[in-house]
Amino acid sequence: MLVIGGSAGSFPSVSRILGHLPADYRLPVVMCLHRLRDKREGFKEALEIKSLMPVSEPDDKEPVLASHVYIAPANYHLLLESPSCFALATTELVQYSRPSIDVLFESAADAYKSKVMSVLLSGANRDGALGMKRIVKKGGYTVVQDPKTCSMNTMPQAAMDLTPIDSIISLDEIINFLVKLH
Known about the structure:
The protein has 182 residues and is of the alpha/beta class. It has 6 helices and 9 strands; from the N terminus they run βαβαββββαβαβαβα.
C-alpha cells in the first residue's frame, strides 16, 4: 500500500508522480490532498489527465485494488477500514482539514502495518506528522519531500520533527524510488 499526503504546493508534485507510475503499478495508491470542501468537480479529473492508472474517489466499503489511484473525496475523511476496503467519515476536522492526511495515514498503519509506505509532500500545516509517527510505530516506511525543495515546507518538517523518517529526498528522487517499486 502506498499512501501520499500533501497540501499547499503539492498538486503539481502529485501530478508528476502519477505521470511516471506505470499503468500496471503493483500497489494501490491512496492519496489525501487538502482541497476545498465544497468543490467536488475538477480535482479528480485533473489527476486523471496525468495518471496512467484509473483515478477515483472511493465510496464507503469499496474494495482496494492494485494498479488504481484513489483520492480522498472533498469534505470526507478517507480511511482504510481493513486491507481490503475503504471507509468514509464526516467526523471533526483534523488539523483544520477534512479530508485529513493524519486520518488516512493512521488508518493505513493500522490496516497494513509494515506493508505501508507513506509519502508526505509540500504543505502549510502539520497534518500528516502524527500519521507518519503511527506508520513508523507499526513498521511501515516513511518518505518526506526534502523541505528545501518544497514550496511550503511546514508539513514535511513537522513530520521530521516528530518522528524518525526513513527517506528525506527531492521530488525527482521520490519519483525514481516509487517507479523502482514497480
